[in-house]
Amino acid sequence: MALLNFRRKEAPAETTSSPEVDAFLKDYSIEVMPRTAEKVEDFTALLPSGTRVYIAHIEGTPIEDMVATARRLNADGYRVMPHFPARIIKDRATLANWIAMYQGEADVKQALLLAGGVSEPHGDFSDSMQLMETGLFDEAGFERLHVAGHPEGNRDIDTDGSRRNVDAALKWKNDFQTRTDAKMAIATQFAFDAQPIIAWADSLKNAGITLPVHIGIAGPAKLQTLIKFAIACGVGPSLKVLQKRAMDVTKLLLPYEPTEVIQQLALHKAANPDFNITNVHFFPLGGIKTNATWAIENGGASTVPANPS
Prior knowledge:
The protein is of the alpha/beta class.
């Protein structure tokens, strides 16, 4: 079974569009950074109204740039969800200031809480659970908190290659939702193979973790670009797939599109309505416009549901 779908640029366009895929892509989300958002002249020409847009906070990005991006996207009618990376937040006062800036200047009501991509904490926080325990998001009236998930594990957290620590953290976060009124979901790292994704999602359900899963999917991109990001993000099994593809010179120049993984997950969801993957979250590794265009051409222009996840 092929894990990735490649086609030559001159080949006739093939889409995944079907009732199952349309339903699966409804209320998809996408990620931007301030520096990439600056290059987009008009988001309303690319993304359906009401789309949830995550704003990635990379180390070194001034909070003012993050807030300005959030303000722009909110004004354009999008549900804005900035990252709060625990390890680059110095202390409780800094966190409170960020929350106040987002709310006061951009009317932000949602957040993705994660450890962040740095190895050593810059201050008091080392993980997202500590951010949640401050109570600041609840006090500020945030409507939704998302947390990170890793279908292929996370070597930074579980150095032995297991999922012991990441699964324990998800159980803690699941319990946090049950003892509070927080609306939560898991937003995952990107992966390329549907069957391991399904097995991972089922394992969460079997462990009693009821948080809905927003599965991370890499948007259309050059193979070389995907390999670069997979290495940077620690995507293990998927990286091996990409490296194998890269050994074939005839495929090295062909663009990747997430056709097969979306189709397979959509069909599984249609056959199993209680499947805990509820949404798709796109990482636009080949560019926001390229990803947004692919999503629209493949059924992602669906309107946002009345009660989005």
